[in-house]
């Protein structure tokens, strides 16, 4: 953008891109105290398949719900991101400090990540990676919770959403298998029942098809059987209990 457009409500770009390449954040001064919630995750959080320029990712819908409460929602989703290993960006364990704990006014973090750890093994993006067991992911989540608790940040675990049939007509064919689904189920069971997180958001229960629980509900499916569409993203955000998010009930 040419010239000084700091005071402009609607800056006028000379050209646009469909990816956020150069801008990492915008900090705005507020006279009133503001709390921050960070959503850390992968492409489901980053907004793959959400309508372009429409703010229909699930963190966008959550931000809309919280804006009148002086709460900012930061989207720390990286498409292709994983909990344990690098590839498309740094793994979540390594970027927790930068993307979550160092953010101003941080009060809570929602963790929705792990499906790529489960599914990438022996595929085009990670041909030499072996299978990841549920116990490995659980150990990673425990590191996140320990570090968040050490900094007094409330940490909310989100269950991994269904993915049967995911990307089957793409170079990522094989992303889903019955064995990988077993890992997802084991991880979700631990997230729900372990008590390790301060709270749990059951995105799996929200988005799954009751008639075929390993799949996304058709109304929420973007079409690739992995990423929720706009309606699915809204349902996810609407399912978040704000009182539970901040520990007020």
UniProtKB/TrEMBL annotation:
Spell out the coiled coil positions from the record. Answer: none
Domain of life per record: Bacteria
Q: Name one GO molecular function term.
A: hydrolase activity
Q: Which UniProt keywords apply?
A: Hydrolase
Q: Which Pfam families match?
A: Lipase_GDSL
SUPFAM superfamilies attached here? SGNH hydrolase
Q: What is this protein called?
A: SGNH/GDSL hydrolase family protein
Q: Which organism is it from?
A: Novilysobacter erysipheiresistens
């Amino acid at each position: 953008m040419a010239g000084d457009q700091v005071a402009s409500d609607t800056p006028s770009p000379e050209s646009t891109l469909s990816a956020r390449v150069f801008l990492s954040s915008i900090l705005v001064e507020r006279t009133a105290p503001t709390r921050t919630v960070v959503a850390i995750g992968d492409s489901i959080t980053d907004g793959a398949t959400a309508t372009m320029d429409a703010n229909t990712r699930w963190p966008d819908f959550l931000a809309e719900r919280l804006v009148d409460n002086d709460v900012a929602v930061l989207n720390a989703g990286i498409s292709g991101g994983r909990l344990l290993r690098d590839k498309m960006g740094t793994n979540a364990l390594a970027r927790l400090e930068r993307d979550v704990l160092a953010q101003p006014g941080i009060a809570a973090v929602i963790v929705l990540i792990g499906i790529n750890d489960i599914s990438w093994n022996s595929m085009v993006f990670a041909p030499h990676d072996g299978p990841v067991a549920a116990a490995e992911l659980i150990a990673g989540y425990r590191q996140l919770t320990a570090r968040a608790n050490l900094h007094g940040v409330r940490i909310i675990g989100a269950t991994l959403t269904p993915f049967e049939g995911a990307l089957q007509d793409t170079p990522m064919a094989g992303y889903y298998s019955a064995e990988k689904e077993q890992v997802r189920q084991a991880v979700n069971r631990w997230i729900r029942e372990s008590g390790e997180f301060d709270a749990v958001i059951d995105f799996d229960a929200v988005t799954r098809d009751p008639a075929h629980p390993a799949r996304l509900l058709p109304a929420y499916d973007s079409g690739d059987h992995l990423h929720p569409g706009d309606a699915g993203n809204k349902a996810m955000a609407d399912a978040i209990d704000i009182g539970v998010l901040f520990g007020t009930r």
